[in-house]
Each structure stands twice: as C-alpha cells, then as structure tokens.
Amino acid sequence: MPLRSVSGALAPIAAAVVIALSLGACSSSTSLVNSRTQGYEISDSAQAQIRPGQSQQLVTLVLGSPQSTNTFGDQSAWYYVQTKIRQTAFGMTMIDSRTVLAVYFDKNQKVVDKAIYTLKDGKAVTIETRRTPSFGEDRTFIQQILQSF
C-alpha cells in the first residue's frame, strides 16, 4: 500500500518534468530573449572614414550600398539604418536602438556632410484608421450573390 501512495504522489511531479523538458526542447536557444541587429552594422571606424569631399564610390566601398536614397534638387542623400532589437520566444519584438547614418552628396557626387540620427530624433506618426467612403456600396460576397436573385 505505501508504494502506491508514493508513486501516486510522484506522478504529477514526473508529468511536470516531462512537460518542462519537452517545452524546453522547442526553443533553439537556452534564453527566452534573443538580441540581434537588423539592417546595417554601422561601425565607428566606418563612420570615421566618411569625410567631406570623398566620392560616392568610396562611400560604397566603405559602407556598401545604401538601404535608402533621396534626391532633392542638386543634393542627394544615402541612408544606412541599423536597428537593434530583442525578440522573445513568444514573438514579441522590442526595439532597443535605431541608428540612421545619412550621407549627403552635392551635384558632383562628393560628400558634403554626414549626420547620425537616433530614436530620439524621430517622430511618431499616428496612422489614420478611418476609411474613405466609396461611391459604390460595400457588400460581402454572400450579399452580392443574394442580391442577384
């Protein structure tokens, strides 16, 4: 009789251990939060190499192709974006830092200036959720079929 009561008391503990081990095997790493960098890895030495008067070809050799470009009038700008994020095992993503290196060029494709922007320099833009009404009537597929009868 005592053996049955001991094994009965150990059964929930054994089940919990099996469940914990099986859930632990689902993750590819031992931590629940992974840190990584999205975009460019902008090093301090690469930033120091970019100086006014240098050509676009040299900037491409040092930093690579830009992630985004902008042309306005006689000036153009290249943007290199680095975002450091943390992602939980449950899919939540948190942005730790964002750095944007902007390299400005004149009409002769020579570096005029460079600037570094962070999250503090950005502005949050609210997305409008209202819908623009259309001229027609919004109907579902079922409503369209029923109306045809």
Can you walk through the features of this model?
With 149 residues, the protein is an alpha+beta fold. It has a domain at 32-125: 2-Layer Sandwich (Beta-lactamase Inhibitory Protein, Chain:B, domain 1). It is 32% helix and 31% strand. Strands 1, 2, 3, 4 and 5 form a five-stranded antiparallel sheet that branches. β4 (93-105) and β5 (111-117) form a beta hairpin. The radius of gyration is 28 Å and the shape is flat. 6% of the residues are buried. The model has no long low-confidence stretch (mean pLDDT 81).
Total strands: 5
Round the mean pLDDT to the nearest integer and report it. 81
Taken in chain order, the helices and strands follow as HEHHEEEEH
Which topology of the domain at 32-125 does CATH recognise? Beta-lactamase Inhibitory Protein, Chain:B, domain 1
Number of helices: 4
Fraction of residues in β-strands: 25-35%
Structural class comes to alpha+beta
Shape from CA axes? flat
Largest sheet: 5 strands, antiparallel
Our measurement of the CA-to-CA distance between the termini, rounded to an integer number of angstroms, reads 75 Å
The low-confidence runs, each spanning 5 or more residues with pLDDT under 50, are none
CATH architecture of the domain at 32-125: 2-Layer Sandwich
